[in-house]
Design a protein that fits this description.
The protein is 40% helix and 25% strand. It has helices spanning 4-8, 50-57, 80-89, 106-116, 121-134, 150-163, 180-197, 208-211, 230-242, and strands at residues 12-21, 24-34, 39-43, 65-70, 73-74, 91-95, 168-172, 200-204, 216-221, 224-229.
């Protein structure tokens, strides 16, 4: 049995996680660990279970079997209210299509998680504007999300994820809806700002160019983590992306 000290060496850890949707298994005993401040890329073919794994690590899905730990505590056994609080305060999310609220302005979207955490309105919007400035879209604060380009919308999603000062950012195909140039800009900003803040990033992608931004790459196949490519995997991804 691992000691409590050993378990705390990892910020996030999944052990033998299984998850099915109806009779369809998505994960079949997946295990992975992520260190504090690490940028981990999770790769695999479509339908391999990589996004389901990310959702289990983030406490969005509860595994049918196995356990998930965050910062030394069992995440999978927490109640929904406790997991929701963690997702609101300790986790940031960037999804393929941003999942911004279209009725709100850009500044509203970034300020929203802060307001939900009971940050005073003036302070929340000051923080939101500061992040929009850092991401090069300070002039878009009053725009609704439908008035933004895809790349700008993803920058807003990155700003929203970082604004709460999370310990972890979960990014699921964050450049999947973008052209290569816009995708590179988003990844430069996401990984650069995360490293600056010491934020851990778990990144799901099928794109070698995106995986090249990671410190380490793991592969998911048939619902299991079939190989840890380590830092060499990121280097290989970088080499493929350069071709």
């Amino acid at each position: 049995m691992n000691s409590p000290v050993a378990m705390r060496a990892h910020l996030i850890e999944a052990r033998d996680v299984a998850k099915s949707f109806g009779k369809t298994p998505a994960l079949r005993g997946a295990s992975v660990a992520v260190s504090p401040g690490e940028i981990l890329a999770v790769m695999g073919p479509s339908g391999s279970g990589k996004s389901t794994l990310l959702h289990c690590l983030a406490g969005i899905f509860t595994p049918d079997r196995g356990e998930v730990r965050f910062d030394g505590q069992r995440l999978d056994t927490l109640g929904e209210a406790e997991r929701t609080k963690l997702r609101r305060t300790a986790f940031g999310f960037v999804f393929q299509f941003g999942q911004l609220v279209p009725e709100l302005t850009t500044a509203d979207n970034v300020a929203l998680p802060l307001l939900l955490n009971r940050v005073r309105r003036r302070a929340a919007y000051k923080t939101a504007q500061a992040w929009l400035d850092r991401l090069g879209i300070a002039d878009k604060g009053g725009n609704r999300t439908g008035e933004l380009s895809g790349g700008e919308a993803q920058r807003v999603a990155v700003a929203r994820a970082l604004a709460v000062g999370p310990k972890v950012i979960f990014a699921d195909e964050p450049t999947g809806s973008l052209d290569s140039l816009a995708g590179e800009k988003v990844m430069d900003l996401l990984t650069g700002l995360a490293r600056e803040a010491g934020t851990t990033v778990v990144l799901v992608t099928h794109d070698a160019r995106v995986a090249a931004y990671a410190d380490r790459v793991v592969m998911v196949r048939d619902g299991q983590v079939s190989g840890d490519l380590g830092a060499a995997g990121a280097q290989v991804s970088a080499a493929k992306a350069a071709r």
